Amino acid sequence: MRVYHKAYVYLTCGTDLLVFDEPDTPWLGLQVPGGTVDPGESFLHGAMREFAEETGLDLDVAFEQFSSQDLPFETMPATGQFKAPSGRPLKGRHIRRNYHVCLQNRPRDSWEHFEMHPSNGGDPIRFRFFWIDLFGPKAEDRENFFAAFGEPLETLRSKLPNQRKAA
Question: Distance (Å, rounded) from C-alpha 105 to C-alpha 82?
Answer without folding.
Answer: 34
